[in-house]
Amino acid sequence: MNESIAVFPGSFDPPTFGHLNVIERASKLFSRIDVVVAVNPEKKYTFSSQERMAFMKQLTANFPNVEVHEWNSLIVDYCKSVGANVLLRGIRNAGDFSYEFDLSLV
């Protein structure tokens, strides 16, 4: 297992089995995964940040190397603050792949 910190950011509004799948697979590859519940005051959420945090903590309870945190700033700042060197992203469809690929080139 790599001695790496991976960050999996998202609004998780609501959490899905897809989110769980990414976390489960990543938990086998990295020594620590920080699930970061995003808080954006410009965005309208179905669930409060406290509810989304509780959902994610319950969802990840069986993964000892997964931590859940709340963050209300740029995700790059979070990654720097914890020394993360991996950013996890989910891909739902070809459009997501194209978007994420373009972001990776920036």
CATH topology (level 3) name: Rossmann fold
As laid out across the biggest beta sheet, the strand order is 3-2-1-4
Strand content: 15-25%
Instruction: Give start-end ranges of low-pLDDT stretches.
Output: none
CATH class: Alpha Beta
H/E element sequence: EHEHEHEH
Structural class: alpha/beta
What can be said about the biggest beta sheet? 4 strands, parallel
Mean of pLDDT: 91
The shape is globular
How many domains?
1
> By CATH's scheme, which homologous superfamily applies?
HUPs
Radius of gyration: 13 Å
CATH A-level architecture: 3-Layer(aba) Sandwich
- Determine the number of helices (DSSP H or I, runs of at least 4 residues): 4
State the share of residues found in helices, binned by percent.
25-40%
Amino- and carboxy-terminal Cα gap? 28 Å
Number of strands: 4
Keywords summarizing the entry:
39% helix, 106 residues, single chain, four-stranded parallel β-sheet, globular, alpha/beta, Rossmann fold
Outline of the structure:
By secondary structure, the chain is of the alpha/beta class. The chain has helices at 17-27, 49-59, 75-82, 94-104; strands at 2-10, 30-38, 66-71, 86-87. The protein has one domain: Rossmann fold.
